[in-house]
Amino acid sequence: MQLQKLAAIFLVSLGHAALLGAVGALAPPPGSSNCSTACGGVDIPYPFGIGPAGCALPGFELTCRDTNNGKKPFLGHGHFELAGVSLPDGQVHVWKYNISSYCNDTNNTQTNVDVVRFADPYRISQAGNVFTVVGCKAVAIIGVGDDFARFLSGCAATNCGRHGDRLADGACSGAGCCQTTVTKGYSAYVVEFTDYSTVFNSSKDIYNVSRCSYAALMESSSFDFQTSYATSSEFFDANGGRVPMVVEWAVRNASNCVEAQKNRDSYACVSMNSVCVNSSSGPGYICNCAKGFDGNPYLRNGCQDIDECKEPKKYPCYGNCKNILGYFDCTCPKGTRGNASVEGACQKIILTSGTRIAIGVVAGALVALFGFLGWEEAMANDTLVELLDSDIVDEASMRVIHHAAVLASQCLVVPGTTRPTMMLVATELRQLAQADEVQQRPQPPLVLEDLSFAGMGRTSMSTSYSGSNTSGVYSIQKKAVLSIEFAR
Ligand SMILES: *[C@@H]1O[C@H](CO)[C@@H](O)[C@H](O)[C@H]1NC(C)=O
Ligand SMILES: *[C@@H]1O[C@H](CO)[C@@H](O)[C@H](O)[C@H]1NC(C)=O
Ligand SMILES: *[C@@H]1O[C@H](CO)[C@@H](O)[C@H](O)[C@H]1NC(C)=O
Ligand SMILES: *[C@@H]1O[C@H](CO)[C@@H](O)[C@H](O)[C@H]1NC(C)=O
Ligand SMILES: *[C@@H]1O[C@H](CO)[C@@H](O)[C@H](O)[C@H]1NC(C)=O
Ligand SMILES: *[C@@H]1O[C@H](CO)[C@@H](O)[C@H](O)[C@H]1NC(C)=O
Ligand SMILES: *[C@@H]1O[C@H](CO)[C@@H](O)[C@H](O)[C@H]1NC(C)=O
Ligand SMILES: *[C@@H]1O[C@H](CO)[C@@H](O)[C@H](O)[C@H]1NC(C)=O
Ligand SMILES: *[C@@H]1O[C@H](CO)[C@@H](O)[C@H](O)[C@H]1NC(C)=O
Ligand SMILES: *[C@@H]1O[C@H](CO)[C@@H](O)[C@H](O)[C@H]1NC(C)=O
Ligand SMILES: *[C@@H]1O[C@H](CO)[C@@H](O)[C@H](O)[C@H]1NC(C)=O
C-alpha cells in the first residue's frame, strides 16, 4: 500500500519532469543567453532570432555575418541584409544589392537580368515598394510571381532633353525617371531592360547625357528623384549599389487568425494582451499588442501597459491623468467639467440657484437616508454607488433630482419595518438614471463635495472613508463619504 503510494508519487513527478523537458525542447525561452537580440546595430526581436534552434520561430531565423561594414544580420542564410524589423506592421526592411543597370558603352551594351526570390514567411510589399527606373531613354520590365513572372509591368524613362534640361529634382514623372507599382502577395520577381528602340522610334543619341540607366524595386518613401540620378551614376552609388526594400512577413502555417486560434499550442500570439491580425500579404497572421499596451506580442508577458500619463505628447491630458491597465482616465479638476483631453476645455461649473438648492435637498436627503439605513446596508449593493456616481445630479435632470429627493424622503418618514427595501430604492434609482433625459445628455458628473450643504442643520458631516475603485469624478466610495448623526 505504502509502496504503491510512493510509486504513484514518483510516477507523477516523473511525468512532470518529462513534460517540462518536452516543453523546454520545443521552445527554449526566446531571449535565453545563447540567442542574440542584436547584430550590427540592428535589434532582433522575437519571433526573429539568431542562435541555436528555438531562438526564432521556424522560418524567422537570421544569421549574423561579417561584411565590409562589420557584422550584419541576414535573412536566413541568404543574401538579403536586414536593416530593421517592425513587429506591429509585420515588415522587415532589407538591403537589395546589385541594382539592375543598362549601360551603353560605345562598343557594346551591357545589361543583366535580376532574379530575386524570398523564402517563405516573406513576401514583397506592395504598399511599401515601387518599381523605379532612372535614365534618359530606358524601358524596364518587372515580372512578379512565385515560380515564374506571372504579372508583368514596367515603365519607360524618356528623353532627358539636351544636357538634361527636361529634368527637375523631385519630379519622377517620365523624363529621366518613371515609377510603377507591383502586384501584392508574391515572393519573387524579375527585372529586365528592353531595347528602347523596340518600344519608341527614336534614333537620337543619348550617350553624352547618360551612359547608364538603372532599375530597382525599392522602398517608395526613400526615393526622391534628383536630376543627377538620370545623368550620372549617383543613384547607383548613393547606397553602394543597393537600395532599401520593404518585405512583409507573417506566421504562415495557419491561413488566418480564426484557423490559428484553433490550435493554441502553435498560436504565436502568446502575450496576454495581444490581438491577432490577418496578414495582408497572403495567408497567415501577425500579432499586435492590444490597444493601450505595447511591447512584443510574441513573448509571454510581452505586451505591457502603456502609462499614457507619462506620454502627454501622445496622449494629451489637461486635467487629472490617471493610468489604468489598458487605458487611462483624463478628468477635469475638481469643480470644473468638460473634455479634459482638449486644452482649456475644463470649465468652471456654474449652477443656477434653483439647481443648487435642488442638489442641496437631494444630497441632504440621500445623506440622511444613508445615515438612517446604515452605511453597511447602503453599500452592500454596488448599484447604488454606481448610480450616484453617474449623471443623476445634472442641471438637465431636474425631474430626476426631484424624484430622487422624494424617494429619499419617503425612506426617512416610514417606519423601519415598512420602508422600501434597499433593493427597491436601487431599482428606482436605476430607472431614473436610465431615463431619456439622462441618457441623451451624458455629462461629466458634478463634484458634490464642493457644494454647500447649508440648510441641512440637522445633520453634521465629516468626510472620511476610502475604498475600492469606481470610475468617475464623484464617487461616494472614493471621497466625500459622509457619516451622519441625527440630532435627537
Ligand atoms: C548555451 O550554449 C552552451 C554551449 O553550447 C550550452 O552549454 C548552454 O547550456 C547553452 N545555454 C542555454 C541557456 O541554452
Ligand atoms: C552582386 O553582383 C556581384 C558581381 O556581379 C556578385 O558577386 C554578388 O554575389 C552579387 N550580390 C548579390 C547579393 O546578388
Ligand atoms: C571600343 O573598342 C575600341 C576598339 O576595340 C577600343 O579602342 C575602345 O577603347 C573601346 N571603347 C570602350 C568605351 O570600351
Ligand atoms: C552629344 O555630343 C555631341 C558632340 O559632342 C553633340 O553634337 C550632340 O549635340 C550632343 N547630344 C546631346 C543630346 O547633347
Ligand atoms: C521612325 O521614324 C523615322 C523618321 O521619323 C521613320 O522614317 C521610320 O519609318 C520610323 N520607324 C518606325 C518603325 O516607325
Ligand atoms: C549606344 O550608343 C551609341 C553611340 O552613342 C548609339 O549609336 C546607340 O544607338 C546606343 N545604343 C542604344 C541601344 O541605345
Ligand atoms: C506552426 O508552427 C509552429 C512553430 O512555429 C509549430 O509548432 C506548429 O506545429 C506549426 N503548426 C502547423 C499547423 O504547421
Ligand atoms: C481573418 O480572416 C478570416 C477569414 O477570412 C475571417 O473570418 C476573420 O474574421 C479575420 N479575422 C480578423 C481578426 O480580421
Ligand atoms: C475629447 O476630445 C478628444 C479630442 O478632440 C476627442 O477625441 C474625444 O472624443 C473627446 N471626448 C469626449 C467625451 O467628447
Ligand atoms: C444588486 O442589485 C442588482 C440590481 O437590482 C441585482 O441584480 C444584484 O443581484 C444585487 N447584488 C447584490 C449583491 O445584492
Ligand atoms: C477594482 O479593480 C480591480 C482591477 O480592475 C478589479 O479586479 C476589482 O474587482 C475592482 N473592485 C471593485 C470593487 O470594483
Write up what this structure looks like.
- It is found in: Membrane.
- This is EGF-like calcium-binding domain-containing protein.
- It is a single-pass membrane protein.
- GO terms for molecular function: calcium ion binding; polysaccharide binding.
- With 488 residues, the chain is α+β, with helices and mostly antiparallel strands.
- Among the domains are: 101-111 and 126-236, no CATH class; 306-348, Laminin; 353-486, no CATH class.
- It is built from eleven helices and 29 strands.
- The strands form eleven sheets. Strands 8-7-16-11-14 form a five-stranded antiparallel sheet. It has a four-stranded antiparallel sheet with strand order 5-6-17-10.
- α9 (398-413) packs antiparallel against α10.
- The structure holds 2-acetamido-2-deoxy-beta-D-glucopyranose (NAG) (11 copies).
- Residues 57-58, 253, 266 line the site of one 2-acetamido-2-deoxy-beta-D-glucopyranose.
Can I get a quick summary?
By secondary structure, this protein is of the alpha+beta class. 23% of the residues lie in helices and 27% in strands. Among the domains are: 122 residues, no CATH class; 43 residues, Laminin; 134 residues, no CATH class.
The fraction of residues in strands falls at 25-35%
Low-confidence stretches: 1-28, 382-397, 436-488
Distance between the termini: 74 Å
Strand line-up of the largest beta sheet: 8-7-16-11-14
Give the radius of gyration.
35 Å
Overall 3D geometry?
Answer: elongated
Structural class: alpha+beta
Number of helices: 11
Largest sheet: 5 strands, antiparallel
Nearest-integer average pLDDT: 73
Amount of helix: 10-25%
> Any ligands, ions or cofactors bound here, and which?
2-acetamido-2-deoxy-beta-D-glucopyranose
Number of strands: 29
Subcellular location: Membrane
GO molecular function, one term: polysaccharide binding
Signal peptide: 1-17
Protein name: EGF-like calcium-binding domain-containing protein
